[in-house]
């Protein structure tokens, strides 16, 4: 009997001790988890503050140290990234530091080519994260000029890919552009790139990864096939390093050499169905850069899906994209049948909406206007307005002074007289 009572006593004591131990463990574990989540939150907060500070520093640096007009930058490195795509790394020819820029911004170049009477102006996105060393990188795809094109696209991209070498000097305006994001935001972000449109998005991606971001980033990257898949290894490396980065690569024209699951994730183009399949919700900031039809259809689809327009940011490059930005008001909405007088040329033309912009109207009627990027970025086509007013088919990155307009993006609001 005593034996049974003794055993029972041991069992009760053991049970109490075990309960106390469990209780203590529970308290310790709760404290541990709280400390861990507090530490994680503190780390996240620190990173956000750091990213925010870097951004503010870059803005200050740009405001103080950027330059007006063209400055001489030297090509110090030229790297092949894919078929017909080369990256050029640039430093100041005089060895002085270059200001930091905001990821997503672009540079404006002026080229004096031997067989051209006039300089050609082009904009190219910076394709890497800003670095303290003040080295800039652009990545350019050689684009063939469409037949009968009035504006020579392809000439400069061909020149940069085929002719320019390390050691050459280029004329460059300071970084600019509003296709940038808030680096301290923790709102999940979707980057949608078509072909060489990856460049500004890669700059953002690299900057976020440099900042050790824990933000959810989803990159959708559409190219034709492995030969055109620029930065494939670099992005694969980031994908391995950053668990919050999710990448979906689409090949629209895979060749036999392309392996699904190794080189790419999906056959076909990026479309809304893919985005809806992949994204758990619409609660993202969307950044798009690529061929105009892609931006048009994807941005339109996103809006139909319920994404607010202010959460969809697009970057337009060149004549093909500038006039078809998805957020723009169609040019045809500006009243057709308006008279436009190019005063110095002595020509009065009728704008019926088909030309697309004042620059296009001028060019198709033999009025010589200076032009550059044709996307409202570089300011080369600024013309003084003598009478009348204009509207813009999309908000230009360069804001022209009152009394002037950017001919590449402007349409007449009413009867217009230009000093051109
Ligand atoms: N020259 C440069 O360095 C720069 C150029 N750009 C601009 O970027 C654009 C991209 O050029 P590039 O690399 O030649 O592009 P590509 O013609 O190679 O197209 C890239 C991918 O986008 C797909 N695509 C085309 N249309 C659609 C659509 N409607 N919806 C979904 N996907 C689509 C293509 O599919 P498919 O094979 O079926 O056509 C392809 O898979 C150009 O318009 C250019 O103006 C931007 C920055 C710099």
TrEMBL record:
Membrane-traversing stretches: 7-28
Cofactor field: [2Fe-2S] cluster; heme b; FAD
GO molecular function terms noted in the UniProt entry: 2 iron, 2 sulfur cluster binding; flavin adenine dinucleotide binding; metal ion binding; nitric oxide dioxygenase NAD(P)H activity
Enzyme Commission number: 1.14.12.17
Domain called FAD-binding FR-type: residue spans: 68-182
Origin superkingdom: Bacteria
Keyword Transmembrane attributed: yes
CDD domains from the UniProt entry: fer2, flavohem_like_fad_nad_binding
Catalysed conversion reaction: 2 nitric oxide + NADPH + 2 O2 = 2 nitrate + NADP(+) + H(+); 2 nitric oxide + NADH + 2 O2 = 2 nitrate + NAD(+) + H(+)
Pfam families: FAD_binding_6, Fer2, NAD_binding_1
All residue ranges annotated as the 2Fe-2S ferredoxin-type domain in the record: 336-420
Family annotation (InterPro entries): 2Fe-2S_ferredoxin-like_sf, 2Fe-2S_ferredoxin-type, 2Fe2S_fd_BS, Beta-grasp_dom_sf, Cbr1-like_FAD-bd_dom, FAD-bd_FR_type, Flavoprot_Pyr_Nucl_cyt_Rdtase, FNR_nucleotide-bd
PANTHER family, sorted: 1,2-PHENYLACETYL-COA EPOXIDASE, SUBUNIT E, NADH OXIDOREDUCTASE HCR
Homology family: In the C-terminal section; belongs to the flavoprotein pyridine nucleotide cytochrome reductase family.
Protein name, UniProt field: nitric oxide dioxygenase
Organism (species): Thalassobaculum litoreum DSM 18839
């Amino acid at each position: 009997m005593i034996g049974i009572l003794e055993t029972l006593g041991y069992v009760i004591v053991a049970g109490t001790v075990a309960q106390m131990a469990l209780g203590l463990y529970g308290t310790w574990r709760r404290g541990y988890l709280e400390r861990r989540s507090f530490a994680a939150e503190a780390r996240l907060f620190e990173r956000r503050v750091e990213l925010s500070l870097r951004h503010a520093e870059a803005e200050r640096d740009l405001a103080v140290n950027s330059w007006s007009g063209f400055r001489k930058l030297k090509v110090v490195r030229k790297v092949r990234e894919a078929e017909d795509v080369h990256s050029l790394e640039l430093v100041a020819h005089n060895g002085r530091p270059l200001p930091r820029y905001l990821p997503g911004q672009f540079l404006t170049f002026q080229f004096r080519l031997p067989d051209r009477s006039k300089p050609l102006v082009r904009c190219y996105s910076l394709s890497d994260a800003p670095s303290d060393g003040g080295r800039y990188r652009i990545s350019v795809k050689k684009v063939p000029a469409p037949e009968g094109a009035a504006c020579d696209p392809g000439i400069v991209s061909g020149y940069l890919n085929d002719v320019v070498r390390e050691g050459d000097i280029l004329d460059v305006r300071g970084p600019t552009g509003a296709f940038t994001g808030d680096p301290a935001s923790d709102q999940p972000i979707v980057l949608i790139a078509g072909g060489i449109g990856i460049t500004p998005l890669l700059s953002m991606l690299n900057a976020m990864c440099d900042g050790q971001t824990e933000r959810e980033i989803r990159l959708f990257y559409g190219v034709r096939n492995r030969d055109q898949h620029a930065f494939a290894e670099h992005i694969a490396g980031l994908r391995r390093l950053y668990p919050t980065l999710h990448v979906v690569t689409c090949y629209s024209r895979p060749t036999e050499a392309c392996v699904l699951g190794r080189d790419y994730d999906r056959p076909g183009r990026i479309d809304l169905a893919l985005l809806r399949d992949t994204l758990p919700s619409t609660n993202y900031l969307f950044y798009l850069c690529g061929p105009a039809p892609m931006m048009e259809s994807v941005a339109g689809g996103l809006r139909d899906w319920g994404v607010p327009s202010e959460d969809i940011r697009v970057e337009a490059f060149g004549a093909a994209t500038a006039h078809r930005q998805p957020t723009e008001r169609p040019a045809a909405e500006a009243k057709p049948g308006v008279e436009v007088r190019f005063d110095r040329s002595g020509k009065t033309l009728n704008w019926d909406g088909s030309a697309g912009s004042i620059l296009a109207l001028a060019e198709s009627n033999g009025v010589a206007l200076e032009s550059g990027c044709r996307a409202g970025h570089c300011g080369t086509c600024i013309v003084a307005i003598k009478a009348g007013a204009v509207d813009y088919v999309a908000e230009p990155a360069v804001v022209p002074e009152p009394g002037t307009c950017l001919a590449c993006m402007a349409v007449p609001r009413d009867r217009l007289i230009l000093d051109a």
